[in-house]
Structure formats: structure tokens, C-alpha cells
Amino acid sequence: MALLDGKPIVDVLINTQITLSPEARRQEFEALGIPVIQAMAYRRGDAAEWAADPQGVQLMDVPFYLAQAEYTGITDIQIAAATRKGDDQ
């Protein structure tokens, strides 16, 4: 854990990457001693389109962004961004 004067300087880690090698990541995250949140982007439209989407997360995203993260012990997976049409990012 990152400490400054013996006190933690990080309250939570926000992971935005696909989580591969779940057992190794689980050990790393546990060693940090802080909560880890998985953030993912809705890539099929903007925030309004995400809010109107009855599914919310596409089935093809589940193995990469949801299941792998859950295998590492991350359980609070959040949509943190959306992509506007015409945006390169």
C-alpha cells in the first residue's frame, strides 16, 4: 500500500482495464488493502442512449469487463463513461 508518514494516501483504486490473469490480479489487489472498483465505458452511444438501453451492458462485454473483474474480487462494476457519436475517444 502507498503510505505517506505511515498513513494510506489512496482510498480506492479505479481500474479501467480488462482484467486478465484473475488470480494474479486478486493477489495484487488484496495486497493493496483498499477497495478496487471496475469502471467501464458504454461504447454504443452517449449517456442518454445508455440510460435508454434496457440491457445497459452488451452481452459481448460481460466476459471481459464483468466476469473477469468479478474473478479478481471486484464486485462494484460501474459504467463511468459513454462515447458520443463522432468522438475518436
From TrEMBL:
Pfam families linked to this entry: CobN-Mg_chel
The organism's place on the tree of life at top rank: Eukaryota
CobN/magnesium chelatase domain mapped to chain residues: 5-84
Protein name: CobN/magnesium chelatase domain-containing protein
